[in-house]
Each structure stands twice: as C-alpha cells, then as structure tokens.
Amino acid sequence: MRDKLAMVAALLATFAGVGLLAAIPKMHVPPPPVTKPPVEKTLVCPGGLGETTAWGGADGGFSSAQLGGDITQSQPLKGSKLTTPLVLTGENDLVAGVQVRKGSASGWSDCLAPRTSGVLQVINPAATELLLINPDEVQAIADVTLWGEKGLIQTPGSRGIVLAPHTQRVVPISVLAGVATPVGIGVTTSAGRVAMVASSWTATSGDLAEPAAPALTQVLPGVAEGASAVQIVVTNPGTQRASVNVTAHGPTATYSPEGGQKLQVEPGSTRLIDLTSALQGERATLLADSDQPIVASVIATRGADHANATDVAPSRQLAAVVPAAGVLQVTNLADVDQTITVEAKSSGGGSVAPTRQDVRAGATWQLKLPTTDKESLRVTVTADKPVVAAVTTSAATGTTIAPLRAVGTDDEGGGEIRVDPELR
Amino acid sequence: MPDPDQPSSPSRAERLASAWAWAHNPAAVPDPSRIDPATVVAVMVVHNAEEWLPRQLVALARLEPRPGTILVVDNGSTDGSPALLDKALAEGVIDDLIAGSAAQGFGAAVAQALTGRDVPEWLWLLHDDSEPKRAALGRLLQGAETQDADVIAPKLLEPKRRNYPDQVQEIGQSISSRGRRVLTVEPGDIDQAQADSTRTLGASTAGLLIRGEVWSELGGLDPALPLYRDGVEFGWRANLSGFKVITWPAASLYHRQAGRAAWRITHLSDDPDIVDRVAAMRLVAAHAERPGPAQSGLVLNSLGRSLGMLLGKSPGAAWGELVALRRFLGSKDATRDLRARVSGLPRAQAEQVAALRPGRFGGVSHALDRMASAVAERYRDLTTDDSDTGIDDLTGDDFAGGRNTRRFASPVVVMTVVLIVFGLLAGRGFLGASVSGGALLPAPGSLTDAWRAYVTPDVTMPGTNAPWLLLAALASTVTLGQPWLLVVLGSVLAPVLAGWAMVSLLRRLVSSTLIWGVLGLVWGMTVVAMGLLGVGSVTGITASIALPHFVRSVLVWRERPQVGAERWRAPAAAAGWTIVLTAVLPLFWVLALAGAIVWAVIERARIAELATSVALSGLFFIGWVPRLVAHPMRLFTGIDPLAYPDTAPSMAGLMFGRINPAHPDRWVSVTFFGVLWLAFAVAMVFGVLTRRVQAILLGCVGLGMALAALISRLAVTVSGGVARPDVSVWMLIAFGTMVVSIALSLREDAETGSLDGRLNKAVAAGLTLASLVTMGWFTVFGTAAATHDRPTLLPSYAHDVQRTARASRALMIEVNGASVRWMVTSATQPQWGTAERNPTSPSPGIADRYAGLASSLSQGSISDQLAADLTELGVSHVWIRGIDADRIAAISNVVGLTRAAADDATNVWTVTGLVSRARVVTGEGVTPVADGLVPPGSGERKLVLAEAPDARWRATLNGTELEPAADQPLQTFVLRPEPGRVEWHLQPSWLALTWQVLLVAVLTVLAAPVAQSGAQARRAREE
C-alpha cells in the first residue's frame, strides 16, 4: 500500500512538474526587421484654381514636375505660385498642400494622392467645379456620381470622362447639379487613377474639398475655437439607410453634441447637420460613427469664410507644412492620457523648441504657432498612441483647416507581414 | 452403449494413429523385391570415424534385408576406427576389411575394394557416417526394380534427434552453372514422406545404389573429384550415357556429413568448403559446352562470392573462396582430364540432362523462394503467440517451441488491417500529387530534384544541406522514383508503420499477440491523435516509427552479448536508427551520446561497441556540422523548422497531446490521452514492476514531458528566421514509454496473475475503445487539417515559365486586412528543405530585398524602379490577392508590369522582357538568357545570375568554365564573346554524399547477419 501511495505521489509530482514548466511564458523573439524600401509617395498639387500657392517639403528631399513635364529635384515649397498642377514625388515624410485665395476667402487642400475612387462633399454645388488630374503614364477613365439631399442626382455626361496621360479635366458640378443643397460627389475610375479636388467659391467664401473613402468612422479635425457655425455633411453612398452618431472631442473631454445622435441618412443621399449650438464655439475634433459606410466632412465658419476638413487617419507621427501663423489643434484619440510632442521648423532654418504637452484622453489641445514671414512652417506632432491634428487659420484673407498627415513608416500598412511557405 | 459385437468406429486417437502410422513405423520391411539382395555388394569407406562409426555399424547390423557382401575400406584411420572395424568383422557385421590409404579419395577406395572381384550385379555405396534405416536396401532395390533404374539415390536425413521429427537433408541433387549445389528439397524440412521419385542429375554417394554394369561401363567415380560432387558427376555421366538415374525417397539414411561439417580433417581436405568449391567449379567447367565462357563465369562468380563473404563479415570464408579459385585455376590438368572423359560420352541425352539442371534464372528463383520463406516466417512470428522467454529459447535451441497459439484472426493482423483501412479513409486528403501544408513543404517534382535538393547546397550557407533530405531522396527512390508518392504512402501508412514498429518493440518485451495488437493500435493512433499527420510533421511521424526500432535495437544489444563479428550487429542497427532520428532532430544524437557515456560507465566491456555506434552515427553528419555551428539552435528543431507552425502548448495541451494546430476536438484528445494516462497510472500503481523499472519508466515519461514543456517555450533563431521547435519527439518518448509500461504491466499479469484480471481486461478494453473513438472522429473529419493536396495558386502560364530554362521566380502576396503573407516561389521553391533557411531565399541580402518589395507592394507604395528590381531578382510574375483598387492601380501604373486578373480578388502582374534567372549585361544593356543560349557579343560582357555570390557557383559557356567576377552584389561571371549555351549550377556536395554512402555501407555490413561457410553452418546446426 505504501508503495502504491508513493507511486501515486510520484505521478502527481510528474504532473505538477510538467505543469510548472508549461507555465513558463512562451518566449517571443521578434522576426528579423524587414528593411523596407523607401515608401514612394506621389502627390498632385492642383494649380490654377485662383491665386494658388503651394506649401510643402520633406526632410529627405523630393522631386517635382509640372504635369507632363520633366522631373527636377525640388526645394521646399513656400508659397510657390501654381498655374498648373505640380506632381511631387518623395518618401513618406513628404507633405504638401495648396492654399487658394479669391477675394476675402481662402481654401486649403492637401496635395492629393492619385486614387481610383473617392467621395467629395460640397455645400454649394452651384458654385463648384470638380478638378480631375491624371498624373500617370496611362489613360484614366472616370465616372462621376452625385448624391443630393433627395438621393441620386441624374447627371448626363458624367460617366466615361477620359483623361489622357498627364492631363486634367474640369467637371462643372454647377451644371450637373444646379441645386443649393449639399451634394456628395463620387468619383470612380474604370481605368487608371486620378487626383481629385472640388473647388467651391462664392463672393464671400470658398473651399477646396478633398476626397475621402466611405467608412464606418470618419474623423474630422479642425473645428477652431470661436467658430460661429459648425456643420457636418454626411453622404451615404450605400444602398441602406445609415444611422450616424457624432462625438465631439472638446478641450477637456469627449461628449455627444446635442443634435448629433441617431442621424438618419437615406441611401444615396447627402445630409447637412448643424452642430453650432451644441459645440458652443469650443474647439473640437468630431467623430462620425455609422452603421453603414459613409463619408463626412466638417464645415466650420469664422467670420464670413468657412473652412472644411474631411476624414483623416490617426497616427503616432503627423506632419503638415503650412504657410503662416495659425493654431495647432491636437486630439488625443486614445483611451489614456498621453504626452505629445510638437515641433515646428521654418523653411528658412528657424525652429521652435519642441513643446511637450500632456493631453487628456479624448481631449483636444491647441497651441498657437509662431508667425513666419515668407517661409513655410513644417509642424510635426509625435505621440505614443494615435492622435489627429490640424492647423487652423483665420484672417482677413479667409479661413482654412490644414490637417496634419501621417508620416510614420510604422503606421503604413499597420499589420503583421510574414513569410508563409504555404503560399505557392 | 456400443454394441460389442459390432465393429466400433475408430476413435479420434485411433484415426490419428492410423494416419501417422508411417511415421511411427519407419522400419517396416518392404515387400520383397525380385532383385536378390545377395547380389548387392555394399562398399563402405571409413576414415577417422571413431565418433560416429559405432552407430553406423549398428545400423548395418540391423539391415533387413542385408546386402550379399559388405566390404569396408579403411582409408588409413589413425583413431579408434580400425579397432571398431576389426570387432565388426569378427562379429560378422561386415564381410571384409581392406586397408586403404589416407591419400586416396572415396572413388579410389571403392575401386580398391572391387579390385580382384567380379563386377557385382548391384553396388551400394556407403559412407561411414551414413546410417541406413533398417529397410533402406530393400526399398532401394524395390525402386530399382519398379522403375527399372540404373542409379538410385535414397533420401538423406539429418542426424536423428530424440523427440524430434526427421528433417530432410537431400533427395538427389543437381548443380547450377556457377557450381551452386541445387537440392530438390529445402534442407531442414520435416520428413513427411512428401517427395516422390523423380529423375535426377546426381546425388550424394552416401547410400547410392548403382547397377554393376553401369559402374563398370562408366569406370566408377572420377578421380578428378576425390571427395565431393563425385556422385553428381557420376550421375551426370550416367544420364548422358542413357542410364536412368532416379531418386527413391522411400529409402532413407541418416547422413551426418562429417566431412563437409569438418568434423574430421583428412589429408585430402584441409578445408571442406574449399575442396567442395574446387570440385564444383571443376565439375561445371568440365561438363560445360563452351569451356571458356564457363570458366570466366566461374571466376567472376567466385570473386563475387568472395566479396559477398567479405561484406558478410566472414573474411576467412572470403579468403577460402579465393583459395578455391586459385586451386581450380592451378589444376587445369585435372579439369582437362575430366573434360576429356566426359567428351567421349554420347550427347544424345544432352537435352534431357539439361532439363535436370536449374535454368538460367535458377539463382533468382532460389533467392525469391528464400525471400518468400522469410516473409512467411515473419508473418508467422507476428501472428503466433510464441513465448521467447522459455528455457529452450534461452539455451538457444533452434527447435525450441514454447507456448504456441495460432489464432484464426491474429490481433496484429486485425490491427494492421484496421490501421491501413483507417489510413486510407482518414487520409483521403493526402491522396494527390501536391500534398503540402502545415509543416510539410511540397515534394520535389522528380527524383532528380529530390536528390538535387540534398546534394546542391544552399547559396551562401556553409556545409551540406540537412541530411534528412538524403534519407528522403533514398526513400523516394524506393517509391518508384516519385517523391509525391512517398508523401502519400508515408501519410496514409504512417499509423500502421508506427503500429508495426511498436509491435516490433513489444515482441522483445512481452509474448502476447493480443497485447501487441492492442498497444500497436494505440501507438498508431497516438501518431494521429497528436495531429502529426494533420500538421504534416515529418519529424514526428518519422520518430514514431524509428523510436521503437531504436529502443528495440538497444534492447537486443543489451540482452544478447555476442562474440566475433556478430557483436557489431546490434550496435550498427542502433547507429542506423540514431542516424534516422538525428536527421529529423539533431539533438537526439546528443542524447544518444549522453546515454552511451552512462552505459559505458556502467558496463565498461561495452565501450568499444558504444564508441563505434555513436561515432558512426555522428560521422554521418560531419558535412552538416558547419551549418549547425553557424546556427546551433537548429539542434532543437525538427526538419524544415521555418515551416513549422508557431505553437506553444499549455500544460493541458502537453498532457493531452494537443501540441499543434491539427489536433482533434478537445473531447477526443481528452478521451484518448486521458485513457492512456489512466492505463499508465494503473500500470504503475497496480503493476508488479520492480521499483527500478518503475523508476526508469516514470523517469522517461517525466523527462519526455519536461523536455517537451521546456523546449516548447523556446523560440529559436535558425538560418534566416525564428522557429518554434517541434516537440513531438519528446512527447512521443513520453507516450511511448507509457505504452511500454502498460505492456509490461499486462504481461506480468498474464504470467503471474498478481494483477487483477478484470482490471487487466478493463485497461485493454479502455485503450481499444479510446483508439476506436479517436479513429471514428478522424475517419469522419479526416486527418488532413493543414496538410492536403494543394495545387499551386499561380496561373498555369506563370507556373510554366518557372519550369522553363528561364527558371524565373514569382513574388506572391496575400493581404488580409492588416495581415500580409508573402512568399517567393520558383520551380524548386518551396519544396523539401527550403524552410531549413529563410524560405524565400538562403541569401539574407536577397531575402531582405524580397521582403522590402513585398512590403511595398502590399501597401501599394511603388517605386519606379520596381520592374527593374524584379528583373534583377529573377522575378517574372507578381501575384497579389486582397488589395484594393487604389493599390492595384498604383502597381499597374508601373512601367514594365502588365496586369491580368486571376479572379475577383487576385491579380497577376507579368514583368515584361522575358525575365530570366540569368542575364547578359553589357555596356549597352541587359539581355535575359531566355533559352539557355547567349548571342555573340563584343567587348566586356558579363553573365549575371539572380543569386547571391558564392564561391561554389560554376558556370560554363559551351562546356568551358567561365571566370567568376569578384565583388559583385549578385553572382557574376565574365562572359566570353562567342555565342553558345550557358549553364550554371552550385557545386554539389559529392564528397559528403560519398562519405555518407560509405558509412551506410559500413553500417549495413555490420548490421547484416554474419555470412557463414557451409561447414560453419552445418556445425552450428549440429551444435
């Protein structure tokens, strides 16, 4: 009996020993880092939309060419006048945008990556032109679709728009949709790809609308402090009704603005929602969450002019090149407080000491940027967790929102990349 | 109640007795022949036969009928034979005693005995060791009369053994064209009066009855063959002369073969095997129609036999064969004389005589017969309860029986059938030419590719490729030269092969076929339940088969100390299995070394054997050592480590065999391994094993599980990547020990009864039921979880290009949300061995470039240099699945790429310009070598391969080697201006292969049974 008990004990000890060994954490050795080739980025800066100036640059340098022209190594863009589109090629840290002024109104658009589809939103289609630019070596064919308040707008002649290599076409939305209500402009290519921007101007205000891709969440930065009116435009390009909830990341916390909940957007339609009273002139970044893929943009009015911003991708490393003094807004989209670092460097060589600031989870912090004179200012924001940021300007010459774009390589592609011998 | 007046029906015992009466009444006197026995003169030749002569004389005295005269020639005996013969003469057992000479042969002695006498009507030749049965002469005369025969050969039996049936030694004999003695019966067959009388070429002279006229006409036995083969030669001449030579099995003698067994050394026979071989060669050469070719054939055959003996670890016998050849060639006069005598004979009967000799393929037929016999014997072993622990067995008696129970359906046969049927049903996913997935990479396309996968080293990597590739190539050669067939057969038959391996081990330990069958089934299902088949773990499958064999060879080694060459057999077998196991898990050799050291400390007499075994197995891998030194963590991993799934099992996972993604449902694992653990616990707690055995078994289980647990935590860096070790071998050691423990426990119960019988049965029933449940689950859901028939995803037009002289590659990328999988494929990648290093390329630099391209393409961030980069790397096609339209457009926008949609989610871009693995680069441009031909050129030009530089690269232009160019990022050769065919290859590891083949040959020779000379074999039978 004693022997039997001893054997039972030995068996149990074996189990326990193996259990203890199996409890040792699994060793994880990261795979060897992949030396990625430089991410090559092509941006198209629209030109000839009025008094158009280009701003941009990259730490690693970049090259530029007039549409269809020869490529040359380029210096940082600091207010270069553009009468024709400019094609920039550089690495991932290349950021650039154009500012267009007409009278007392201004508009801002990033220089655009050519793409095969996108949705642009304008609130004044009767004064809007859609500019399509084909920077590639191959022909592009684009189709344009308009979604108004009451659904799809029939637009004869808006399909099969051919763009030869290195050419641009202006599509008069005012002709296609002579309405005074917001529309979403869908552009898809059946061949090639195009850069696209919508330009809307009235006597007192103007905007450049950039494209965005339909998604369940749209992040809209740049609602500046003191905005007299804040609206969002939501386009539902799908076939099912979308229910949209808007969240505001204000100066101190995240909240749901009154009138921004359970907004119903019919399929194939565009709707304008006014959030002015709910935001009460506070700075904010808005999030539009939907149960169906939507596109949204924010329209923020200061003075007579208004500015717009479309969806941006949160990132841990953001940058923008802006022309002059403005206010930087950074929104911490993480669940935890974090410290962000802001750097501002002038194209003239001057720079401001890095600013480190704790930003509460879900809050939007702002920083007044230094004034530059005839120089561009490259603003960089880095953080441990993804943030969004934008530079807002408001002056006698107009109001703009210039979002900061992701420039970190680790944000590109995002996920795991691994060799798989089963793929054959 | 039976009526006493009526004849009662015979009882079963009586019927049996009647049926076997012939066996129990061997001395029954035959019906009298009309040939008067008195007309028979028997001549017996005696030489130094003191040991067996008394039995011979007694047999002569008991003859019924007796011959008319018995003459004895004493050929100069120096022992007690003359005294025995004098006594026999005095007692009238023999009629005359003639003094012969030790220098004369059998034929000469018979001639001497007949000198001065009338030619007898019948002559009966007797050896001094050929004990005739009582009725032998009467039956021979009966045969002579009824068959009207001239020469009658009796049945010769092995010496009589008490309580054992008679065994047939010979009933007539013939001779092959190479001198091999050809018998009409298998020596050792039980005598059941199964043979009928037939015509024969000749026979031993022992007991040969010859018509006197024939003896006289043919001149007796030929003096050229003084001792052996003389009876065959005489019969051959008699046949040629038209006399009738027959066998007459009804007459029999016990023949000791004292001369051929070398029980006595005579003046004429220093070595009976040599004398016999010389006689055989002389006989064949003299009777051959074309002496020249016959003699050449005999010489070649003799050299071959000698080599065979040498390989059979019998250098003495090999030397003896050479001595026989020398004597044969040095005694051409004797051969010539014999030939002269033969040539004078009529040839009318030549055709009939030829029919009495074996045909051209008689040797092959004989070998096949022996092989079939060996298979039948092995089958009998598997299907019969045959205790190997009886006293007879321990004393080495060949005729030992022990308990012997033959079942209608042996459990081992049932196990075999069940596992084979299960393998076919559950392994249905393996039936295809492109089985891969999990840890199993695709098989090479051909046998040549399989061998090339081993002998062609990986670029930039030191040493040879992993030696398991050599074993795989060898195995592929066996499977009709089809590597894919090896995969299919290996997968489907893995359970039954593992089951057989366990049965083979258990046969050394226990004697019950029921235990063999049940635990063989359990072991076969262990392989399946651990998911080794489903995940394609060649390491685990191989270990499940090799481990039991390894343990068995160690047990044989330990249990049966041998002497002479025989002592190397078990160490060599253990070394062979060590090689197999080390090939799939290099750490095993380290363990074997440690075990050998411990054993050597315990038993110093084994040091030489242990050192030889470990050294031979280690030397097999000597060419691989540089790579192991460069990547030492490879010791811990199984084969193709970078293809093995990244899994680290929990404690429950280890306990229940859930160590990889191909495990069955949880309840199946718990059922099967739970019952196994329970049976093991019962065996350990209630079994009657000694404490020492218990400690060893429990230690092995604990060690196996502990190593599995520890090693499963590791993530090791091997060549070009990070791998998770395959712990299946350690798990198999633990589970295998449990199976053995259960077997030992059950055996103890069967023989001592100290374990409760119901518990015993419950254990067996539980294990069987758990195996059947597991089997049912896998039969329904299949074993091919990760591994199954997977054709390439590449469109055929892209796949075909890879197999042309361009030998291009394809970059394949699959994007699934944030996850990106990618691979570089070619005609030989992926395949066996390509996950021994970075699966995309053995060169870190090139692999890094591929990774960068894959990353960029998956993100759609494209460089204008993309097409140029792909061309430089020999990538002709880019296959991408799962990217959005923007990225598709971005890639399509690159100059030099042409897109084609493969399906809704997949696009294939072809790099324009006939991308090839080799390019000709000149100052004016780059030309791909599309068809293996280069055009004429002028000025400086180079042949650039899409490969990393390596000193082992070789390239030729029209067969002439090209000079490599130094300091180039890719392997480059200076190309001469003339046009022609270029070929390039990496220098194969022929030296390593030769070394390994030699080692395998040495191991095979050592492990093979020791070849014995005829005399040794006969002595062994007698002893």
Q: Main traits of this protein?
A:
A: 424 residues; 8-stranded antiparallel sheet; 3 helices; globular; B: 1023 residues; alpha+beta; 9-stranded mixed sheet; 47% helix
Please give a structural write-up.
The complex is a heterodimer of chains A (424) and B (1023). Chain A is mainly beta. Chain A contains three helices and 34 strands. Chain A has helices at residues 2-22, 173-176, 276-279; strands spanning 41-45, 51-57, 62-66, 72-74, 77-81, 86-90, 95-102, 105-110, 117-122, 128-134, 140-148, 151-153, 161-163, 167-172, 183-191, 195-201, 206-209, 215-223, 229-236, 242-249, 254-255, 263-265, 269-274, 284-302, 305-310, 315-322, 327-332, 338-346, 351-359, 364-368, 377-395, 398-403, 405-406, 417-419. In chain A, the strands form six sheets. In chain A, strands 18, 19, 20, 21, 22, 23, 24 and 25 form an eight-stranded antiparallel β-sheet that branches. In chain A, strands 26, 27, 28, 29, 30, 31, 32 and 33 form an eight-stranded antiparallel β-sheet that branches. In chain A, strands 9, 11, 12, 13 and 15 form a five-stranded antiparallel β-sheet that branches. Chain A is globular. The mean pLDDT of chain A is 88. Chain B has 1023 residues and is α+β, with helices and mostly antiparallel strands. Chain B contains 36 helices and 31 strands. In chain B, strands 1, 2, 3, 4, 5, 6, 7, 10 and 11 form a nine-stranded mixed β-sheet that branches. In chain B, strands 19-18-20-22-21 form a five-stranded mixed β-sheet, with helices on both faces. In chain B, strands 24-23-26-30-29 form a five-stranded antiparallel β-sheet, with no helix packed on it. In chain B, helix 10 runs antiparallel to helix 11 (315-329), helix 19 packs parallel to helix 21 (538-559) and helix 27 (666-686) crosses helix 29. The longest helix of chain B is centred in the C-terminal third of the chain and has 25 residues, at 728-752. The radius of gyration of chain B is 38 Å and the shape is elongated. Chain B starts with 11 loop residues before the first helix and ends with a helix. At the A-B interface, helix 1 and strand 34 of A face helix 26, helix 27, helix 28, strand 19 and helix 32 of B. Strand 34 (417-419) of chain A pairs parallel with strand 19 (819-825) of chain B.
